[in-house]
């Protein structure tokens, strides 16, 4: 008998969306399901039409999920860009620290005349 987590492949929604490893996938599905419930229930309370409310619930799921997916992926890309800029800045600081190219190093008049 296999132990918990042993030999199990990743959980893939619809066979292709790896929820565990794809950024924003899990949150998009969760927000989509909440949106589906809210839209479907709201439409049912307003109209008392079950089939039409289910149609609205499916539409609410799709719209909420895609809306949050694009919002989350945009923020994720912005975060990655900021991380890359900080990483390059730290690398440049280590590279130029103490040299004549160091922007934080104050040059006095004597150093300028010697250079």
UniProtKB/TrEMBL annotation:
One of its GO terms (biological process) is mitochondrial respiratory chain complex IV assembly. This is Cytochrome c oxidase assembly protein COX20, mitochondrial. Keywords: Membrane, Mitochondrion, Mitochondrion inner membrane, Transmembrane, Transmembrane helix. InterPro entries: Cox20. The chain crosses the membrane at residues 29-50, 56-76. The keyword Transcription regulation does not apply. Its main location: mitochondrion. The keyword Transferase does not apply. It comes from the Eukaryota. It is found in: Mitochondrion inner membrane. Belongs to the COX20 family. One of its GO terms (cellular component) is mitochondrial inner membrane. Pfam families: Cox20 (PF12597).
């Amino acid at each position: 008998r296999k132990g918990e987590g042993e030999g199990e492949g990743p959980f893939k929604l619809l066979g292709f969306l790896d929820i565990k490893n794809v950024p924003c996938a899990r949150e998009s599905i969760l927000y989509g399901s909440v949106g589906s419930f809210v839209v479907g229930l709201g439409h049912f309370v307003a109209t008392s039409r079950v089939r039409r409310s289910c149609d609205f619930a499916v539409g609410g799921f799709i719209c909420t999920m895609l809306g949050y997916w694009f919002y989350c992926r945009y923020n994720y890309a912005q975060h990655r860009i900021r991380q890359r800029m900080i990483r390059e800045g730290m690398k440049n600081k280590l590279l130029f620290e103490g040299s004549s190219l160091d922007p934080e190093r104050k040059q006095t008049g004597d150093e300028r005349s010697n250079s």
